[in-house]
Amino acid sequence: MADYQPADTAFAVDRDCKTLARHVLEQLQSFGSEAQDISALMNRLALAGKLIARHLSRAGLVEEALGFTGETNVQGEAVKRMDIYANDVFISVFKQSGLVCRLASEEMDKPYYIPENCPIGRYTLLYDPIDGSSNVDIDLSVGSIFSIRRQQGDDLDQDAKDLLQDGRQQLVAGYILYGPSTILVYSIGRGVHAFTLDPSLGEFILSAENITVPPHGPTYSVNEGNFWQWEDAIRDFTRYVHRHEGYSARYTGALVADFHRILMQGGVFLYPGTVKKPEGKLRLLYETAPLAFLIDQAGGRASTGTQDILDVIPTELHQRTPFIIGSTEDIALVESFIQDHSRRLQNTMTPN
Ligand code: AHM
Ligand code: MG
């Protein structure tokens, strides 16, 4: 009997079988217990992404899905209903995972413990449930950012001191982008991979493997409305891109969307500090460190301007950092303006 020959459609079938769970296990080249845990955690993240994507896609038709709750979060920001919905989705999904003992998010002052998971659940999930929430009510792209760290010690006293470590301790980092399609991008320290949600299958299917960021790109992405509040170095960098051909400004107001463009096409995203708020707006543990982990894996860089984001050790859970991320050459250019200014400052302070 002749050997079986797959039909012409086999390529598409094969591609559709590259699900997230299978990919994680292939990446880890193991069926050991940690590999099984990470695969299960990724599956839960995917479920959270699907639930949030579904809610977002119908939000305009559902009572009380859009708009503000009237509350203010720990960051002093007005809370949107969608922030709370998405925050609760992650809690519910991970309650049932058995693997996560503790969750910490932008929307919660203190970490949230799931005591029944703690004897076996040795992982902590850090996340920003809806990043870019000012886009929600006008149907523009938003995202969720996630990071998984191994829990150390018993820490049931809400201190979460073991989380105050550098970004290289992350086991998994990634985001879900809710755009024209829903895309999940993740890394476990073995490259960066993107999965697109196929709504007809209800599965995230591999759409780009081993993504690398070009060494230079045309995009600079920054809120120039803050120009007069920045340090001179950042103002000089923007003046530089205004005067040189080949740069385009792109800024959506959602970090995940802006970062996704940079990751795929190169360039630089900046959220610098201001003279009054030198630490900037974005939070280290669940916004900047996970994206820094991804860009590092993709061959780019993330910096505060003077330090690699992955080396920053926070002193508190909701710590903010200035953030410059993207292609290596573009980051080096921004840093050169910062170094130049600090040299000039030192010279004016040094007596002749
Ligand atoms: P959020 O997580 O509360 O939505 O805040 C973070 C967002 C980022 O997505 C985005 O890059 C930035 O805030 C936009 O801030 P601004 O409006 O100051 O430019
Ligand atoms: Mg955010």
Task: Please give a quick description of this structure.
33% of the residues lie in helices and 22% in strands. By secondary structure, it is of the alpha+beta class.
Structure description:
The chain has 352 residues and is an alpha+beta fold. It has 2 domains: 13-208, Fructose-1,6-Bisphosphatase, subunit A, domain 1 (Fructose-1,6-Bisphosphatase, Chain A, domain 1), CATH 3.30.540; 219-347, D-Maltodextrin-Binding Protein, domain 2 (3-Layer(aba) Sandwich). It contains 8 helices and 15 strands. Strands 4-3-5-6-7-8-9-10 form an 8-stranded mixed β-sheet, sandwiched between helices. Strands 12-11-13-15-14 form a 5-stranded mixed β-sheet, with helices on both faces. Strands 1-2 form a two-stranded antiparallel ribbon. A hairpin with a 5-residue loop joins strand 8 (182-187) and strand 9. Helix 2 runs antiparallel to helix 3 and helix 3 (33-57) packs antiparallel against helix 4. The radius of gyration is 21 Å and the shape is globular. It starts with 9 loop residues before the first helix and ends with a helix. The chain binds 2,5-anhydro-1,6-di-O-phosphono-D-mannitol and magnesium ion (MG). Magnesium ion is lined by residues 106, 128, 131, 287.
CATH topology of the largest domain: Fructose-1,6-Bisphosphatase, Chain A, domain 1
Give the biggest beta sheet: 8 strands, mixed
Q: How much of the residues is beta strand, in percent?
A: 15-25%
Strand order of the largest sheet: 4-3-5-6-7-8-9-10
Mean pLDDT, to the nearest integer, reads 91
Instruction: List the ions, cofactors and other small molecules found in this model.
Output: 2,5-anhydro-1,6-di-O-phosphono-D-mannitol, magnesium ion
